[in-house]
DUF4342 domain-containing protein
Amino acid sequence: MEGKYYKKNSETIEKLKYDLRYYCNQNNLETQELDHPEKGWVFQLKKSSKITLGISSRAVTVIIQNINDDMVKISTGNIKWASKVTGGLVAIFSPLALIAFPVLVSTCVGLVKQNNMLKQIEQFIENRMTLIDN
């Protein structure tokens, strides 16, 4: 998961965390967060589809790492989705492909929705932080 470097101060980081929580609450996203001593603040957000029983669940992870007093690295990505892709690939090559076809379709739809959610979160962060050119 690649990250971008931003100018920081304690107020901007705390405000970003608050805004992310608020955004998730307003969009009915499930969240979990952890302050990790080495990795920094890890924030996961997910939206599950009740229609597909979670098969097309969308999840995004945001990691905020302190680099120094003036800079923070923010990484975003789709870490947990690989298992769903694997399930879709199994469905393609399964002898029961016709039965498994709905799983494949659901997986593909989920991947597109997840990618859109990732782009929305990245834009959300960009709108609130000052990017530092590398």
Q: What stands out?
A: The beta strands are 3-7, 30-36, 40-47, 58-66, 71-77.
